[in-house]
Amino acid sequence: MYINYRKWQNIKGLLFIYLYAKLTKPTLFFSGLSSCLLSKLLTNIFNIMPNNKQFFLRVKVLDRMLRKTEGSDIHEMLDAVNSYLSERGFPLVKTKGTLLNDMDEISNGYHVNIESLRGCPDGRRIKYRYEDVSFSLFNNHLSVRHIREIRRALSILNSFKGLPQFDWIDEMYSRFDVALEQDGSKVVQFEESCRRLGMEHFPTLFYSIRDHKAVSVTYGRFGHPERTLSLFPYYLKQFSRRWYLVAKSPNHMDGLCTFSLDRIKSVRVDDKVKYIPIGQDIDTFYSDVYGITRQDNGSPVTIRFYVSKKDLPYLLTCPIHKSQTVLKMNDGGAILSIHVIPNTELLMRFLSFGDGLVVLTDISLRHEIIRKIRKMLKMYDSLK
Fold first, then answer.
1. Which end of the chain has less Cβ packing within 10 Å, N or C?
2. Which of helix, strand or coil describes residue 229?
3. pTM for the whole thing?
């Protein structure tokens, strides 16, 4: 992909301003740069043409064919394109007109001349090539470091990929997937949300947060009847493959509540209710919590736990919490500590290590883990 230095600076600046706002100031992110504006800016930067991946795959093949000195006729192009699409599971092109239109898009979109050669042996076939056969749409003038920086920035946006009204991200990813592809193989896979239940409500909640609008939400907790709530939405947070809405209720303004999007049945903006701002910093609210749940009256405690030698590298390279500290190390493992408010998410994370982790203190958390293990053991014993 050819991007000159000035254009690269624009890309880099735009993406990192956007990501800085999202990662460091969530409230600024939701109230400032809209997805529509970002989409238009990126569209201008990349000169994006038709927004589907099949088009970009066809263009990749056509670009290769048009670089041949002797040129390529439309039948050769059609065979090459269909072979490439077939290998990747895409529908085949059935008409020559599709490829002729693609070449028009290439010529107009990239301001490159494509010439017709009529000197073929049979006198009838027309061959096509670039006027300058050294030209390519995919000449990669970005360094490996620059490409890595773009991919790192785009990976943040991947959370929104596939959501309603965020289809511009699919378009942008298609552009990069083809432009930076080396051998057609997939090299990155991101974890997806659970079945995407409730994600159709994401745009409404997103713009309600940005525009400071109250919402009416029909919510059904697992094992409980549905109920309709009036809420002031403040934040959208992802944890363990699920998206959550962080909000306050007019009837309970002292604390924040969390609502899993996969349990939200309907959402509508409620202009009759006056929006009340959050009144606290959301980052500070979650600073002493692992996961999504924070008890209103909970206080942080120091939790000490032993980690086996086998599991220690995983926790040293990816700490459970930013407060994690190594207290003591020996040949058999290590004793670590974190300073957080205990919750269900933390308990389940500790249990996920099996016999590779033992909670030493907090005592109440250790007793809760023991109770869970005994219950599990009883269930497994019943299978004998």
1. C
2. strand
3. 0.57
